[in-house]
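Bug report

Summary: structure tokens for Glutathione S-transferase differ between web form and batch submission.
Environment: batch mode, default settings.
Steps: 1) Submit the sequence below via batch. 2) Compare with the web form result.

Sequence submitted:
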Amino acid sequence: MKVYGDTNSGNCLKVKWVCDHLALPYTWVAVDTLKGETRTAEFLKLNGAGQVPAIELADGRTLAQSNAIIRYLARGSRLIPQDAFAEAKMDEWLFWEQYSHEPYIAVCRFLMFYLGKPASDLDPDKVKRGYAALARMEHQLAITPFLVGDAVTLADISLLAYTRVAHEGGFHLDGYAAVRRWIGETEKFLGLQPAR
């Protein structure tokens, strides 16, 4: 299997973390999104949306979208709950992450960390929605150790990717004790060094 990704992207890191945790054999193919490498004719044959991550299986089939990829890779593992309702709750968080978390926290991070914009240039609505996402996570994580209960699932891995570096997008986690605890525990579970 080949994993096409950019290690600066949280969406790509999700795939790497799942592969590494489950000891899945893969070759990492570095794609520099800032240099437009996802827009080449060759890459667009792999993923017509022109986005990373994408995987290419040994038989030539391809799959894109980070949460679809990790869902596929982790099938049959403990990262997906066996209980049908708990599995659906995991999916609820995966869908929410792409619609209500990543567009705000990841976008603000991209603007500040990669484009060098000051926090004062951020769209106030994106900042407000980013903090709303953190508040929702804080509420859940004050009740349960992880997003879907007592064990790490794909929901935690997916949301860890950009939450652990939210500060790079101007988000302060001082008032989010449960989120900070969860970041540390999920990083430890995955064998990651703490985000700086």
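Above is the batch result. After comparison, the two runs are identical; trailing whitespace caused the diff. Helices lie at 10-21, 41-46, 66-73, 84-114, 124-141, 154-163, 177-190. The mean pLDDT is 97.
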